[in-house]
C-alpha cells in the first residue's frame, strides 16, 4: 500500500504531498526530496544509455529499510513519487504502473481546470479522493 | 465532423468580441492581441498535458518541434504543418499553406491587415505548449498571402 504520494513540479517544488501515518510526515517529505536526485539522474542518463522510447515510468528508484520509492516523469517534467511499504511484497510492477497512470490522468484533468494556475499547489477534491482510494486500496 | 466548424466559429467570435469590447471601453487598444495570446497560452498548456500523456519521452528540441508539427497540429487543425525549417540555432519556421483559421476569410491579399488578430491565439497556443514542455520561446506569425502563414 502506498504510504506517501507526491507530485513535484518542473522546478522541483512540491505541488502535492500526502502521507498516511500523519505523525511522521517530515520523514516522508525528506525521502521524497532525496528521491528527486535519483529521478534527475535517471532522466539525464536516459538520453545516452538506452534509446528508451516509451518510458515515462521510471521504476524503483531506491529501496530503504522499511519502504521502496517509485518514480514517474511526465513529458512536461512533472514528477510523481510514490513511497510504498516494503512489508507488502504482493504489489507487482503492473499495479504500480497502473497507479501512476491514474495519477497522471487526474493530473491532466487538473491542468485543464480553468481555475487552476499551473504552478500552484493542488487543492482539488477529486484529486484528493483518487489519492485516498489509492492509498487505502491494498491495505 | 462538426467540431472543426465549432472551433473556427468560436474563435472568430472571440476575436470580434474582444475587439468590440476594447472599442467600447476606449482604453486599451493594443492589449487585445496580448489577451488573445495569453488565452492561447493557458489553453496550450492544458492541451499539451493531455496530448503528451501517452507519448514517449522527447529526446531533444527537434523532437518536440516535430511533435508539434505533426501530432499537435493534426489534433487541433486536422492537418499537418507543410514545412518546417530550422537554422539549428534555436529558430524554427513552421509554414502552413492552408491555415484553417484563415481559409474562411480570403484566398489572396484582401483583409491582410486583419490577419494577425486571428493568429494571436494560435501563437499563444504554441507558446503555452512549448513552455509546458520546458522550452521558453517567443512565437511570432507572419502572413504574406492568405491562407498560408508562417
UniProtKB/TrEMBL annotation, chain A:
Protein name per Swiss-Prot or TrEMBL: Trafficking protein particle complex subunit 2-like protein
Keywords: Cytoplasm, Endoplasmic reticulum, ER-Golgi transport, Golgi apparatus, Transport
Family: Belongs to the TRAPP small subunits family. Sedlin subfamily.
InterPro entries cross-referenced by the UniProt entry: Longin-like_dom_sf (IPR011012), Sedlin (IPR006722), TRAPPC2L (IPR044760)
A Gene Ontology BP annotation from the UniProt entry: endoplasmic reticulum to Golgi vesicle-mediated transport
Cellular component, GO annotation: endoplasmic reticulum; Golgi apparatus; perinuclear region of cytoplasm
Cross-referenced Gene3D superfamilies: 3.30.450.70
Domain of life: Eukaryota
Main location (coarse class): cytoplasm
Compartment(s) of residence: Cytoplasm, Perinuclear region; Endoplasmic reticulum; Golgi apparatus
Automatic annotation (TrEMBL), chain B:
Subcellular location: Endoplasmic reticulum; Golgi apparatus, cis-Golgi network
InterPro entries to which the protein is assigned, alphabetical: NO_sig/Golgi_transp_ligand-bd, TRAPP_component, TRAPPC6/Trs33
Pfam families in UniProt: TRAPP (PF04051)
Predominant place of localization: endoplasmic reticulum
Keywords attached to this entry: Endoplasmic reticulum, Golgi apparatus, Neurogenesis
Domain of life of the native organism: Eukaryota
Any one annotated GO CC term: cis-Golgi network
GO biological process: endoplasmic reticulum to Golgi vesicle-mediated transport; nervous system development
The family this protein is said to belong to: Belongs to the TRAPP small subunits family. BET3 subfamily.
Function: Component of a transport protein particle (TRAPP) complex that may function in specific stages of inter-organelle traffic. Specifically involved in the early development of neural circuitry, likely by controlling the frequency and amplitude of intracellular calcium transients implicated in the regulation of neuron differentiation and survival.
Protein name: Trafficking protein particle complex subunit 6B
Amino acid at each position: 500500500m502506498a504510504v506517501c504520494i507526491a507530485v513535484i513540479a518542473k522546478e522541483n517544488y512540491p505541488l502535492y504531498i500526502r502521507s498516511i501515518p500523519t505523525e511522521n510526515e517530515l520523514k516522508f517529505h525528506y525521502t521524497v526530496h532525496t528521491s528527486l536526485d535519483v529521478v534527475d539522474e535517471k532522466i539525464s542518463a536516459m538520453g545516452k544509455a538506452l534509446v528508451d522510447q516509451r518510458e515515462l515510468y521510471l521504476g524503483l528508484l531506491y529501496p530503504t529499510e522499511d519502504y521502496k520509492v517509485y518514480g514517474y516523469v511526465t513529458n512536461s517534467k512533472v514528477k510523481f513519487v510514490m513511497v510504498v511499504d516494503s512489508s507488502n511484497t504482493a504489489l507487482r510492477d503492473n499495479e504500480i504502473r497502473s497507479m501512476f497512470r491514474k495519477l497522471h490522468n487526474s493530473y491532466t484533468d487538473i491542468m485543464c481546470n480553468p481555475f487552476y494556475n499551473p504552478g500552484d499547489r493542488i487543492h482539488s477534491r477529486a484529486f484528493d479522493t483518487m489519492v485516498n482510494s489509492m492509498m487505502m486500496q491494498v491495505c | 465532423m462538426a467540431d472543426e466548424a465549432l472551433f473556427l466559429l468560436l474563435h472568430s467570435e472571440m476575436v470580434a468580441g474582444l475587439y468590440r469590447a476594447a472599442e467600447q471601453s476606449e482604453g486599451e487598444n493594443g492589449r487585445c492581441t496580448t489577451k488573445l495570446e495569453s488565452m492561447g497560452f493557458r489553453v496550450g498548456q492544458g492541451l499539451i498535458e493531455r496530448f503528451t500523456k501517452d507519448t514517449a519521452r522527447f529526446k531533444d528540441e527537434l523532437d518536440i518541434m516535430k511533435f508539434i508539427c505533426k501530432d499537435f497540429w493534426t489534433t487541433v487543425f486536422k492537418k499537418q504543418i507543410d514545412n518546417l525549417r530550422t537554422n539549428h540555432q534555436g529558430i524554427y519556421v513552421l509554414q502552413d499553406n492552408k491555415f484553417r483559421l484563415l481559409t474562411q476569410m480570403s484566398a489572396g491579399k484582401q483583409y491582410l491587415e486583419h490577419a494577425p488578430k486571428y493568429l494571436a491565439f494560435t501563437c499563444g497556443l504554441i507558446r503555452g505548449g512549448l513552455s509546458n514542455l520546458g522550452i521558453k520561446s517567443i512565437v511570432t506569425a507572419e502572413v504574406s498571402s492568405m491562407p498560408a502563414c508562417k
